[in-house]
Structure formats: structure tokens, C-alpha cells
Amino acid sequence: MTITLEDIAMITGLPIEGRALTGQVRSVGWRQRVAALVGVEPEPWTHETRKNPRPSGVLFSWIHRNFRKCPKDASPAVVERFARAYLLNLLTQVVFSDGTGDTTSWMFLDPLRDWDVKWSWGSAVLAFLYR
């Protein structure tokens, strides 16, 4: 017995039709892409004697600190930023969790940029599960 694509769709409710989540994962400029997505650029690593232990994304605590609660009188643009931050956190902490345990991955920044693109998130979840 194995989990199928239809099982993923039924269990998670994620779409299995649409564009595949493939392509190049670009690490260059990820801080600026986070800022474009959610409106706040993560602070750079500034420790003088130690190498950055998290060059691949922002801490979950950074997302919680900056996007814990959307203001009641927020404009639609601010609500959209909070929604993207929530989805980034959800994708990297729950759906595509990895061994870092405390860092969001920048690999989902580009798919979250455009709400109108229909991505096959269920296919990506199944591939990630098998990986």
C-alpha cells in the first residue's frame, strides 16, 4: 500500500492540477524577495566571528515577531502581505518541513508571488514525501 496523488488531494485539500513546482531555486537576493513578498526585509547576519548558521531562510520566530497578528484596520495590501507570510510559514513549517527545525526556506518565495498562478501543490507534497 502507498499514498497516491489522489490521497494527498483528499487528505490535504491541496490542488493536484496546475503548474508543477519546478525550476531553479535561486538563493541570490532571497532577502530582497522576502521583502517584496511580505514588505519587511529580514535583518542580515552581523556576527563578526561566526559564519551565518542560516543562510537559506528566515527564522520562524522572525515571521511570528513581524506577522503574528494582522492589524484590524489594515489595507488590502497589508492583509495580502500577512497572508503571504502565513503561507510561507505554513508551507515550510508544516507541509514541507525539513531538518532545520527553525528556518523558513526561500524556495517557496517565487510561487507565492502571484496569486493567479495555479500551482499543483499536492504533486509537490507527494514528491517531497517520497523524497
TrEMBL record:
InterPro entries: AminoTfrase-like_pln_mobile (IPR019557), MAIN-like (IPR044824). GO terms for biological process: meristem maintenance. Residues 1-131 form the Aminotransferase-like plant mobile domain. Pfam families: PMD. It comes from the Eukaryota. This is Aminotransferase-like plant mobile domain-containing protein. It comes from Hordeum vulgare subsp. vulgare (Domesticated barley).
